[in-house]
Design goal:
By secondary structure, the chain is of the alpha/beta class. It has two domains: 265 residues, 2-Layer Sandwich (Endonuclease, Chain A), CATH 3.30.870.10; 176 residues, Endonuclease Chain A (Endonuclease, Chain A, 2-Layer Sandwich). It is built from 17 helices and 19 strands. The strands form two sheets. It has a 17-stranded mixed sheet that branches. A two-stranded parallel ribbon has the order 9-15. Helix 7 links the parallel strand 5 and strand 6. It is globular. The two termini are 25 Å apart.
Length: 459
């Protein structure tokens, strides 16, 4: 009984501490009403800012014939109002559909580096995958390419200090966010995890998404049912971007300066850019303590403006009330809302906290699916077939309110069709949850959902 009381007191204290340490989430519906859409968004290319006429023509082309969706124009207006930064044109975007593809792209990008490699990562394990990437980085550092690494002390809790010391001795610059203090991580109420996954090579090539540096991501995806003895493979997604999207580098440098890393030469890390394709890209990042949680605003605006389809894949789907309202309102006005979440998880508490919201979503007409066979870790969405995002942001309290996060937004139907293809592949490996079956679940299941929901701010 004393132990149970102690656990309850701890949960209450942590909940209050976490809540007090966080800035409130912004009123996105109000922002959506304030945004001015009379003018086309600014678009920055390698040759400079496009004229309003050219920007308008690009947006009309991307939005499709007869303005099938005005999502892009309205969303871009809100994001420019909030961030003050333009979209970037002239990019090449390639969808990295799983961990194996992402690791191949990361390895090839590192090998191709001629001047600098910046890696910001939540988790880098001291396993076969981690040592492989570390060896590639060491070889590049020894060849004269400057390697800079930011890692999170909580995410990389089990990685020994010697792993990073070896790279430091070779000349790589390494800084830790939330480094261990006194044998343990910082007090939970003061912890703001750097949950970003970002690689920037030579200031012109970017890989970002949900993949950490860990062996769990290197299994073959979409391979059907695994044997019970084999480790469960993780299913994740990244995107590779080449071109003038220098805002990704700005986000890395901002974190580097925040952690008081050695000075970085702007001339070196922001080289002249050239066009690599025709994709419109926006890099968005969220910083703890700021009320304008950019990743949250971006997601919610896209849902509010959706006219046809909202297709979300998310590893920890524990949305706040405003997000629930946006999704249920969209479903009620006829938008095809489909959400894929995990059926296999690394957190039972998060799993049941996700399920707490199923009833409200299902009754509104949202279609829910649980991904089978692999542990779903992806954080992606495609809306109206023209707005796509790939990143580190989960739809839970930590990602939306507390962590450092990063997402890439890619606009247009070309990349959107790739995202829809991947969504359909995951859908084929998923089981649909229907209201008819869900409403008959046991009292024990409902109790677990309620308990998990009560502590969902800690997950």
């Amino acid at each position: 009984m004393r132990r149970l009381k102690a656990i309850c007191v701890t949960i209450v204290v942590l909940t209050l501490t976490l809540g007090a340490a966080c800035a409130p989430l912004p009123d996105v519906a109000k922002l959506a009403q304030q945004a001015q859409t009379e003018k086309p968004p600014r678009i920055l290319t390698a040759r400079g800012m496009l004229s309003g006429k050219k920007s308008k023509a690009i947006m009309e082309r991307l939005q499709g014939p007869s303005y099938r969706s005005d999502l892009l124009l309205r969303h871009s207006a809100v994001m420019e109002m909030v961030t003050g930064t333009p979209l970037t044109g002239g990019n090449k975007a390639r969808l990295l559909v799983d961990g194996r593809t992402t690791f191949a792209a990361i390895s090839e990008a590192i090998r191709s580096a001629t001047d600098s490699i910046n890696l910001e990562i939540y988790k880098i394990d001291n396993d076969a995958a981690g040592r492989m990437i570390a060896d590639l980085l060491l070889k590049k550092q020894q060849a004269g390419v400057q390697v800079n690494i930011i890692y999170d002390g909580l995410g990389s809790l089990l990685t020994p200090p010697s792993f990073f010391d070896t790279m430091r001795k070779a000349g790589a610059q390494v800084v830790g966010v939330n480094p261990l203090k006194g044998g343990g991580p910082a007090v939970p109420g003061t912890l703001h995890a750097d949950h970003r996954k970002l690689l920037v090579v030579d200031g012109t090539r970017v890989i970002t998404g949900g993949v950490n540096i860990s062996q769990v991501y290197t299994s073959t995806p979409f391979s059907g049912k695994q044997s019970q003895k084999a480790p469960v493979p993780w299913r994740d997604t990244d995107v590779e971007i080449e071109g003038p999207a220098a805002v990704f580098q700005e986000l890395f440098v901002g974190m580097w300066l925040r952690q008081k890393g050695p000075p970085l030469s702007r001339a070196r890390y922001f080289p002249p850019q050239s066009a690599k394709g025709n994709a419109l890209v926006q890099a968005i990042g969220s910083t703890p303590g700021e009320s304008n949680r950019i990743t949250y605003i971006s997601y919610l605006c896209a849902m509010i403006f959706a006219k046809h389809a909202i297709h979300i894949t998310n590893a920890y789907f524990i949305p706040d009330d405003h997000t629930l309202d946006a999704l249920t309102d969209a479903a009620r006005r006829g938008v095809d809302v489909k959400i894929i979440v995990p059926s296999i998880t690394d957190s039972n508490a998060a799993y049941y906290a996700m399920r707490y919201n199923y009833a409200e979503l299902l009754k509104a007409g949202v279609k829910l699916y649980e991904r089978r066979h692999e542990l779903l870790h992806a954080k992606t969405a495609v809306i109206d077939g023209v707005w796509s995002t790939v990143g580190s942001t989960n739809m839970d309290f930590l990602s939306l309110s507390r962590n450092y996060e990063i997402n890439a937004i890619v606009l247009g139907p070309k990349f959107g069709s790739q995202m829809e293809w991947l969504f359909d592949k995951d859908l084929a490996e998923s089981k649909q949850i229907t209201w008819e079956k869900w409403k008959h679940r046991s009292l024990w299941e409902r109790t677990r959902e309620l308990l998990a929901h009560a502590v969902s701010h800690l997950l």
